[in-house]
């Protein structure tokens, strides 16, 4: 899933939500109300989509700050280990 969510063995609801977030991140100027419909049809609730957008927005802001301030980027293995940790435990504190 880390390399290609479009082909990963994941739930269709998650795949559709990630596709929506991809467009939000890469092409925000092209978003229309219709872009959220595939995720809704796949079973994502408006509350779940809102939560996903909050997380996406936070990561996008952090990413832009990191780029601007030239933060150190960990190697791929370190990044993958951290991502697996988050996938396993989630974001609950």
Question: In brief, what are we looking at here?
Answer:
This protein has 93 residues and is mainly α. The protein is built from four helices and no strands.
Mean pLDDT: 89
With helices defined by DSSP (H or I, 4 residues minimum), what is the helix count?
4
Q: Termini separation (Å)?
A: 23 Å
- What's the alpha carbon Rg, rounded to whole Å? 14 Å
Any idea what the CATH superfamily is called? AhpD-like
- Secondary structure tally: strands: 0
* Class computed from helices, strands and strand pairing: mainly alpha
String of helices and strands? HHHH
Please estimate the helix content.
Answer: 55-70%
- Please indicate the count of domains: 1
Oligomer: single chain
């Amino acid at each position: 899933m880390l390399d290609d969510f479009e082909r990963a063995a994941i739930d269709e609801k998650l795949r559709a939500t990630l596709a929506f977030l991809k467009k939000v991140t890469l092409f925000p100027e092209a978003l229309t109300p219709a872009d959220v419909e595939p995720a809704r049809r796949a079973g994502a609730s408006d509350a779940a989509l809102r939560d996903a957008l909050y997380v996406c927005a936070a990561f996008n802001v952090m990413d832009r700050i990191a780029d601007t301030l030239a933060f150190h980027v960990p190697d791929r293995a370190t990044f993958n280990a951290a991502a697996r940790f988050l996938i396993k435990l989630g974001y609950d504190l």
